[in-house]
Amino acid sequence: MNSTEIALQPCPSKLTNAQIEQYKEEGFVAFTDVLNSSEVEKSKRELEGIGYQLVTGSPEDVAYSPAAANAEKNPLSGASYKFKHNRCFMQLEPGFDPLELKDPDKIEQSIRKYMWTTEQSDFFKHLLDPSGAIIRTVESLIGPNPIHFQDMALIKPAFVGTEKPWHQDDAYFSISPLDAVIGVWIALDDAEVENGCMHVLAQGHKNGALRHFHDRECEIMPDRIDPAKIVPVPIPSGGAMFFSGMIPHETPPNKSPLRRRALQFHFRAATSKIVDEEIYNRMFVEADGSPASCRAAVTK
To answer: Are 214 and 298 in contact, with CB atoms under 8 Å apart?
Structure first.
């Protein structure tokens, strides 16, 4: 499969056998119209509202962490704000000092990431209603009653949105079996190659775990990535990609004047379980049996 062959169809009320087989064969399936235009706009406003609450909240309600000294080299070291009553937080791109920007609107334009938005927004919880398109599709791919265990919003500001390096989502988790995890990546703006759409390694979920290491972030060793198999997956606003926790993927930097916002949810099958690190390091391994996960990469 290459990018010219990806012609997205509207998300159906029930996946066909061919669409389910595509997920199994390619490691992902993508659709338009997973969210309608009203839900897309509401999602954007909800994110803006959460950001405003965090930036303007009192020290009793919000914890502020300044950027680390090496923030310009490490995308995980930008300034951040976190609610004290739940896990919801947001992080800015490296190189932005909110105390200098001051204006909440300018700060909002420099946000890199939100985490645990469902703990702050009833609307984002509503998107995961069992009758909605997200859960219906996830159930078609990993079975009934999927367990939602993580959510975030991933932002790439115009011109400065940093790269998310190649990784497998399962490298971050400790869930058994490995094929029990599915990610849902929903475009709130048109996601194109220029502003950092998803890229996947075609059928890469079939190759098992790939060795991860820590540099900018937890990422796959460069020599494990075959450039000939890289497939960009442009997705219009409201569309979504449903992808295996084992498929290698990345999003390149945003080199365009257009911001790229996306929601992401992770689910695991109802029959799956969380295992301890020792067990997972015997599961998530390369072909030679060596542990390959993010935690194994820092284990001495």
So the answer is: yes
Separation between Cα atoms, residue 133 and residue 1, nearest integer Å: 25
Nearest Cα neighbor of 220 from 212, 208, 209 is: 212
The pTM score is 0.95
Alpha helices in 191-276 (DSSP H): none
b/e 87-125 (16+ beta carbons within 10 angstroms → b): ebbbbbbbebebeebeebeebbbbbbbbbbbbebbeebe
CB 224 within 8 A of CB 148: no
Give the pLDDT confidence of 227-274 residue by residue, as tens digits: 999 999 999 999 999 999 999 999 999 999 999 999 999 999 999 999
Distances from the Cα of 81 to the Cαs of 64, 72, 86, 270, 281, in angstroms? Answer: 5, 18, 12, 33, 33
78: tokens are 């930008």
